Amino acid sequence: MTWVAPSTVTPGQVATAALWNEQVRDNMKVGRDSGRTSRTSGNITVNSTTWTNLDNNLDITLGGAAADRFRAELGIYISSEATSLYVDARTVTGSNYFTPNTAETNVGGFPGWTMGSGFQGARSGGPTYVTVSGDYAAGVCAVRLRTRTSGAVNKTVVATTDLSLLHYLYNLGPRVTA
To answer: N or C: which end of the chain has fewer CB within 10 A?
Structure first.
């Protein structure tokens, strides 16, 4: 199902059932999809200064179409080693990062998901990204978490029953412009 741009009605025009169903009811169903993955055991050691996959088992795939707004959220707890950890979300098919101007060669990462040297604690929240047609394969978009450290020093991402690593993804529907 794709978004149908609402038509302009004139005074006295009767809203037919077909018009109502297509432009109101069906448009409310576009997007509005979500997914959640978690890792509850097996800490992850990150020690690469180049972007790497955090855990492919945390990938989330949702249906959608170009111009849909996806919001990624992360529940993460890390240990206190003396290196910074950067995390971002990236579409698998299009290889597009959620954070503008993030590239494989720069620091990048979503600022709210950057944890400085010596930081120990939790981070949550996340960026919103407007998808493009190249992000989809067979009508679905897969999103993967990517990470890197500021130095070639181990940084531990905790994954236990009490401190699960969580990844949420929401399709908020199409970006509507006036």
So the answer is: C
